[in-house]
Amino acid sequence: MASKVGRVKSLSRRSFLKFVGGASLVGVTLNLTGCGKPITPDKAIGGNGWMPTQYNAPGNWPTSVRGRVPIDPENPAIVRDDQKCILCGQCIEVCEKIQSVFGNYELPIKKEFVCVNCGQCIQWCPSGAISERDDVNRVFKALADPNVTVVVQTAPATRIGLGEEFGMPVGTNVQGKQVAALRKLGFDVVFDTNFTADLTIMEEGTELVKRVTGELHHPIPQMTSCCPGWVKFVEYFYPELIPNLSSAKSPQQMEGALIKTYFAEKKEVDPKKIFSVAIMPCTAKKFECQRPEMNSASKELNDSNVSPDVDVVLTTRELARMIKRSGIDFASLPEEEYDKLMGTGTGAGVIFGTTGGVMEAAVRSAYYLITGQQPPAALWNLTPVRGMQGVKEAAVNIPGVGDVKVAVISGLANARKVMDQMKAGHAPWAFMEIMACPGGCEYGGGQPRASSPPSDEDRNRRAASLYNIDAKAKLRNSHDNPEIKQIYADFLTAPMSEKAEELLHTHYVSRADDFIPKKSEENKLY
Amino acid sequence: MAKGVLVDIPKCIGCESCSVACKLWNELEWDEQEKNKTAIDRAKEPNNGLWPEEWTSINRYDLEKDSESVARYVKTQCMHCEDPACVSSCFSKAFQKLPEGPVIYDQSLCVGCRYCMMACPFDVLRYEWKKAIPGVRKCQMCATRVANNQETACTSVCPTGAIIFGDREELLAEAKKRIKENGYVDRVFGEKEAGGTSWLYISDTPFEQMRFRTDITSKPLPSYTEGYMKATPFVGVGWAAILAGLYVYNNKGKEPLD
Asked: For the 4Fe-4S ferredoxin-type domain, which residue ranges apply (chain A) (predicted)?
């Protein structure tokens, strides 16, 4: 090929334009690739989102609350949808300040997320990110199976909560409609946990009398054990006080154990084919029914194929979801009655649903158990243990015993204060009722989320509704319940008999090794 | 002064507030599949739970410590090297290290060659394979927040102080103090690794067991190539001059065709 050298001798217009064009292209390219551009943070990707104001202060200013509680993905009761979480910090607020769980352990954590499954974080979460673990489908599946007898029990407090899910005023009593809805959903047998609430009073009351008389070598004060959140709290933080806990199971677990033994025997149903569901105002009950001890029917019948005493626990909210999903018009349902055998409860049983209720019921029957006489009318309205105060005390005069001091506590931070006092030797009470959730079960972690944040106003309205049911009840003492008399005559023989011990009592385990206890007040998590 | 973050691994309780804060502040999309993964799942995945829309993640490792079984949570994200390999490998200057500490990425400059991904010693960069106009994604250390004298989104929400934001030098001193006081492993991961990083980690369990790259060099990665890569422009211009000279020499005395 021939050379081009010397071809261009003079600068033509064409070559000039070519040169300028080329130079411009190079310049534009260099510019586009950022050469010579100053480095500025706003060029970075991201960073245009939103965070709650407490996190947007300059520097490292302290804020009243940061972040959120840890929730184990394996938590049997509580789940969280990260996508809905706005990091407002309300869950930490309630867990630490009201329930005194979060922050009451040293770091590092060992393995387990310390959680009592109370579900108060659900009630406080403003964006609905935290909710109960949904077990609705397991129940629908059991209902669809024609070979399975699905037995359901409803807690005292669900009847005054469920209506709110259907637009009714706070505290509306929907007991009859709830039974009708459960039948319509296809539950074969509908029992009332109020029955076993009464049974709990008989067992726990007898235990208390035995402790006081010294027949049973367990320490006084006796503490209630119906609240699974509270029980787990003791197992975590106060294992040395486990002997003070009543060995009586919670009403839910008593009912569960009896459904697969007593009911199965009476109605000649194969216990292996019973699916036992509990409708509870509580998320901790989901944990409780999975405890390995809660397997009495299987042990009693000596058959490992019998499933746990309570197969599934549904919260009040989940029941409402089932009713809505099935297209049942709740408001227009008729009022129906619970099934017999384990469906009759007294006024004493129904007030289990609020703080002070267990105590009031226990006092009524303790009076009877000690004196053999019916309690005076004053014990049907034991005002010192009513109301939303965190710690309440009362002295009840029982002839032959004198003044019996009792204490009622709701909210675990309140319980912690009293437990610390007890450890220091100050415990003048004979009997203590403790509920994990402020206000008791009526504002439990499984109850409908009110339109307003948790408030004593709503708690009082729900409690008033329960007391109203009690006031109108024909039977107001647990020991007067005819089905209670029947079960002792036909099946259990007597309170704390060998059979009753087997089916209705339990034991507890220390969980102190699951974490490092907090060493001092200053050692806050943050 | 250059900022940094100190991660005190034993203080993490696994609440994952940090990764949610990252999502909120950077408006990262939620992926159904990623959302349902647990910290245990992520610890088993090769990419430490980092994806184009997951700039940080918590990985849980179940370990033995003093013959007791314990769980440790490790936050993963870009380490923000003092002398970043991604920056040096990027010929279009899409990656830049700010004097405040963050290593940031400007997608408008990116040509999509992904050299940065090859260069990163900690494997934190992710490419948006599913997008029509893809870019590279990673933690930006909240560059605009840091520039406005605010702490990063993730540190601002940490309820236990497991991640704290501050001046890197001060954090380094704090880290060494904590190692001594708490009997941690005697190493601040990030002090010297890859020439030092803005993010510093301390732990009471061996870093090797938590998938840290403990075998990494303490020399800045760009320093390996800097010596001869510095000569690139001279070689380029020089080589062009030589070729031009040869051309002129070869064609000397030849007549043009026309």
From this structure: 76-95, 105-135
